[in-house]
Structures are given as C-alpha cells and as structure tokens.
Design brief:
With about 150 residues, this protein is an alpha+beta fold. The chain has one domain. It contains four helices and four strands, in the order ββαααβαβ. A four-stranded antiparallel sheet has the order 1-2-4-3. It is globular, with a radius of gyration of 16 Å. About 30% of the residues are buried.
Length: about 150
C-alpha cells in the first residue's frame, strides 16, 4: 500500500516523499514538485537523465546527484510547457490543476507515463503548485538597429 497523500493539498506524510521548488529567479518562474523517492530512485533517475543528450552536463550542474538533476529537469520541462500557454498560476490547494500538469509531464517521451495506483507516475514526480508568467506586450520595447 502506498502511504502517499492522494491530493496535493495534503503534506507529504512519509520520509520517501519530499517537496522541492524549481525556480528561475530572474523571471520569477517557480514550480513546486512533490517527489516519491521510493519511485524516483538513483537507477530510475539515471534512466530518465540519460534519455536525453547533455546528461553529463546536467549531472555536473547538480554535483553528480542524479535525482536532483531529474527533479530540476522536470521543473524545467514543466516551465517550458507552461510558457507555451502564457500564464500558469496555481497553488497546492488546486489539486486538479496540479494533476493535469503532472499528467502532461509524464505523457512526454522519456518520463515513463503513469503508474497505476500512484499519483506520481513512473518517474515519481508530480506538480503541486506553479507560478509561471510569460512577458506581456507592455514589458517589451522596440529599438531600431543599424
């Protein structure tokens, strides 16, 4: 039986489940992920990270910690998906929205899809909140160049 909480509004109740923020401070992009470390093991994280090129570079950025590398990569992937839509903002109280974004991540090639009976999917990761805003017309300017 999985002791994982069934919704994002419930705090993680087992030591294997932890929350992480992945953020880009200049643009104020922020995604909070909940990770089930009984699913996202070093072996599984290695599979996920090595699916794409530049895996060694990503691993170096996280000082050889492949699990943190994959958590960061998941955050980046979600931020990119969210930017395609414009503005995405939801809290951990908005469980349905977190579930939608979690499913979107896991549908992508390399993330392993769903895992029956688990809200974390094959990769062991789910989105619980996000604040990602694209720039607006008013934040841009035009400059003539020669």
């Amino acid at each position: 039986m999985n002791d994982a909480p069934n919704d994002s509004s419930t705090k993680a109740t087992t030591p294997a489940i932890r929350r992480y923020q992945v953020l880009e401070s200049f643009k104020d992009y922020e995604v909070t992920l909940e990770v089930d470390h009984s699913i996202l093991t070093q072996e599984r994280a290695t599979q996920i990270n090595s699916f794409w090129t530049s895996d060694d570079d990503r691993l170096d950025e996280e000082n050889g910690d492949v699990v943190r590398t994959v958590i960061r990569l998941a955050g980046l992937t979600l931020i990119k998906l969210m930017l395609e839509l414009g503005d995405v903002d939801f809290s951990d109280k908005e469980v349905a929205r977190g579930n939608i974004w979690s499913t979107e991540l896991r549908r992508l090639e390399g993330w392993g899809g769903e895992l029956e009976g688990s809200p974390y999917g094959w990769c062991g990761i789910r989105a619980v909140s996000a604040s990602v805003s694209s720039c607006s017309f008013y934040e841009l300017e035009v400059r003539e160049v020669s």
